[in-house]
Design brief:
heterodimer; A: 7 strands; B: 3-stranded antiparallel beta sheet; 3-stranded antiparallel beta sheet; 15 helices; 8 strands
């Protein structure tokens, strides 16, 4: 079993209150990638869980994308660079938030304490989609 | 009664930038130093923001390459390839083998050219002006090859969805082989003159050390990551394009002259990577696949009338500075709904405050240059 599949099993059991944190698990694109749709309120908790696993330490990217009045936020986390197999694995954590609520979302669910590079990425998304930088 | 005089030990605040000789491009460093030792550094970037992602979403699919080129002009081929791979995945567009070979040739030439630029900057920052001029002279040979293949020396706009804009020009592959031979001779000269010169080693060995844990925490990639002892390279890990058909090694930092992950290791890894790229180029120039340079379906189609089916994709490739990601979303229109790039220099900039803390002020330009940061790709 690959490290990402192992993690996905653990995720399925995760609860926020009495609800499942994970809404949907899907393969993402070609190759060894998974898309994990989660409740926005579980964003930080799932990220902490992911970071605590030794295989997934590298935050690669954070992308936001507007669909109608919602913003889809995707967090791409890759495997450790210890082996080619693990390095090629990718998990995309995804959630949707109201498009005018991205500031509130990042202020509550910021990942800056989880990954040191997250703050810069969140700032980039805020500049583009926040109320100041909204286009 | 004699008056006792003591040296002040208050921290000295000072700023470097946004325009300064020791910075790769516009950025601001807010520094607190204790004498000659840097206590803390705050980094401000974004001064070169051009809104490239937003601009590319406003234009047709075919125009994406124009904007991809400008994310980091020194690494244009990599951004073109990352963009092409993402869009081709969304649109399920097949790419002929020959076109993939040409793409890899362009990327490896770009890797050599980018690494030569790096070596030249490192030479200049330690005061080796002669070496700087030798390298810039040799890099011109590569820019000539870009011009021969794409018509441009920078910002190629050469890739197309489903292949490349034209086939390799007559005599191009022979010129590539000649350039490879010349570069091998030149690399030996650089080594004799500069790489293992004690003056250069003393200025770079043992400083700016990136520990393996920091390399992971800050998601470093590319030569900066490999200099810290990891042998991972996406060309080997996911073998995109035609990298599964070429044989090459992945150089890793070993602490040759100082400590693993220091400035000299980062320099050496890039130098050795040039050798590996030359080997890839030699293999492809000798055995380029026959066939078409562009998917037949796109040959007769007006590029500006291309539309891509609904979907999303995230491509990842190994650029010369590290991992480049391209996230593309299509809603079925004649232009992309979202284009976003993950850039390797972003991690290097985030790591700067950690790396510079405790360093000597005199080492600051060398440490910054050794990371091969492109603010262009950070600011976008």
């Amino acid at each position: 079993m690959s490290s990402s599949e192992d993690f996905l099993q653990e995720l399925r059991a995760l609860k926020i209150g009495n609800q499942d944190a994970v809404l949907e698990l899907l393969p993402f694109g070609k190759g060894r990638a998974f898309s994990v749709w989660i409740r926005p309120e579980a964003w930080r908790q799932v990220a902490v869980l992911l970071r605590s696993r030794s295989e997934f330490v590298c935050l690669e990217n954070l992308a936001a994308h507007r669909v109608n009045d919602e913003l889809l936020i995707s967090l791409f986390v890759r495997g450790r660079p210890t082996s080619a197999e693990v390095y090629s694995e990718l998990i995309a954590l995804r959630c949707s938030v109201k498009s005018d609520g991205i500031e509130a979302f990042f202020s509550k669910q910021t990942l800056s304490q989880v990954w040191p590079v997250a703050e810069q990425m969140e700032q980039e998304a805020l500049t583009r989609f926040g109320t100041v930088g909204a286009q | 009664m004699s008056k006792r005089v003591t040296l002040s030990t208050e921290l000295l605040p000072w700023t470097i930038g946004p325009f300064h000789q020791s910075l790769p491009s516009p950025m601001l460093l807010n520094i607190l130093s204790d004498g000659e030792v840097i206590s803390s550094v705050g980094v401000e970037s974004g001064l070169g923001h051009r809104g490239l992602e937003r601009a590319s979403e406003k234009h047709k699919w075919a125009n994406l390459f124009v904007y991809a080129d400008r994310v980091d002009p020194e690494c244009a081929a990599f951004y073109e390839l990352a963009t092409a791979l993402a869009v081709e995945e969304v649109g399920e567009i097949a790419v002929p083998d020959r076109a993939q070979d040409i793409r890899v040739i362009l990327c490896e030439l770009n890797r050599v050219s980018s690494h030569l630029g790096y070596i030249a900057r490192m030479a200049r920052v330690v005061g080796a002006e002669t070496v700087f001029h030798y390298i810039v002279r040799d890099r011109e040979r590569l820019l000539d090859l870009f011009e021969l293949l794409t018509g441009s020396r920078f910002s190629f706009n050469f890739l197309r969805f489903g292949g490349t804009s034209i086939d390799v020009t007559e005599g191009f592959l022979e010129r590539v082989l000649e350039a490879c031979e010349l570069m091998r001779v030149r690399l030996k000269e650089y080594n004799d003159l500069f790489t293992f010169n004690q003056a250069f080693i003393r200025r770079t060995a043992g400083i700016g050390v990136i520990a393996a844990a920091d390399a992971e925490n800050y998601a470093l990639s590319g030569p900066n990551l490999r200099a810290s002892g990891f042998s991972t390279d996406l060309r080997k890990a996911i073998r995109y394009s035609r990298y599964s058909h070429v044989d090459f090694n992945v150089p890793v930092g070993k602490g040759h002259s100082g400590v693993r992950g220091d400035c000299h290791d980062r320099f050496l890894v890039r130098l050795y990577e040039i050798n590996e790229s030359l080997e890839i180029l030699r293999q492809l120039a000798h055995g380029i696949s026959p066939g078409e340079y562009l998917n037949e379906a796109f040959k007769s189609q007006d590029p500006l009338k291309i539309s891509v089916q609904r979907g999303e994709a995230y491509s990842r490739i190994e650029g010369s500075r590290g991992l480049i990601g391209c996230y593309v979303v299509s809603d079925g229109e004649d232009h992309p709904a979202r284009v976003q790039y993950a850039t390797p220099s972003r991690s290097a900039v985030a790591l700067l405050p950690v790396l510079l803390e405790g360093a000597l002020v005199e080492d600051l330009p060398i440490i910054i240059a050794s990371l091969d940061i492109s603010l262009s790709e950070v600011d976008k």
